[in-house]
Amino acid sequence: MPxxxxxxxxxxxxxxxxxxxxPAAARAVKSAPRPESDDGNGxxxxxxxxxxxxxxxxxxxxEPLKFxxxxxxxxxxxxxTVNYKDIAAVVSDTPIEVHDPxxxxxxxxxxxxxxxMRKHTVIPMSFGTVFKTRDDIMELLRSAYDAFHDVLxxxxxxxxxxxxxxxDRDVMVxxxxxxxxxxxxxxxxxxxxxxxxxxxxxQYGRLVDAALQAxxxxxxxxxxxxxRDVAVASRANKPIGDKMIMNAAFLVSRDREAAFDARVxxxxxxxxxxxxxxTGPWPPYNFVNIRLxxxxxxxx
Length: 300
Prior knowledge:
Layout: E1 3-7, E2 22-23, E3 37-38, E4 44-45, E5 51-60, E6 66-69, E7 78-84, E8 87-95, H1 103-117, E9 122-124, E10 130-131, H2 134-143, H3 145-154, E11 158-167, H4 169-179, H5 181-192, H6 198-227, E12 233-237, E13 244-253, H7 257-270, E14 274-282, E15 291-292
Parallel strand pairs: 1-14, 2-15
Antiparallel strand pairs: 3-4, 5-8, 5-9, 5-10, 6-7, 7-8, 11-13, 11-14, 12-13
Helix pairs in contact: 4-5, 5-6
């Protein structure tokens, strides 16, 4: 029976979570110790702890917004916006430090993006993006306003879905042996010979590898073609391991999500030797490529 598995929500972060808008300038700059205080957004800084702003994504927004206690931290941080004109950075207060990509941290980063994207088009920032001050974020939004605005318009109401297709290599090899007379003959020769079978094995291996490649390319081409009219764009990423033959991302209009879901299941039902695993919806990690070049904020 064909197998189609879908994962939704923040149960597992996408491998592409680091493929997002990336500020070039480091922002982790130590500041002088200060007493405990509240910044007005519910985040309390401990004495001596330098505090910065963790940035999750950029959205269109004309008014300040709050999204609740969802952010990175032992106690989930309050998530809010820093606004500039009609765009805003979605942020939470955080210590100025390197955030390790632990499962908890990555899931918190993704949880915020997923929550925000329910009502907003998002430009996801790469994991671990921390700015020293609110003014630094305002400078980010000001200097990259045109780029952010253009991408937000292009990505409006669009979602990303990941699709991985796997097969059982041993099952496919046996299928090739049944279908290909030359491969079958070589295998019989290898089994019958008592002496060296080195050259026969080499030839057998080359024929099998070529046949596997041909089958893989045929399957992948048919799957991409089958999804072409329900997706806005697609991107092929490198498969991982021997079992995976396809590792792709699809950009889908929000109003076509159900059609995409149905089409994946329909295609999966046609290929009984393949396993389909797809995830989403995600922010458009694979379809946003903004490199933000900022000067380091001058210390006062």
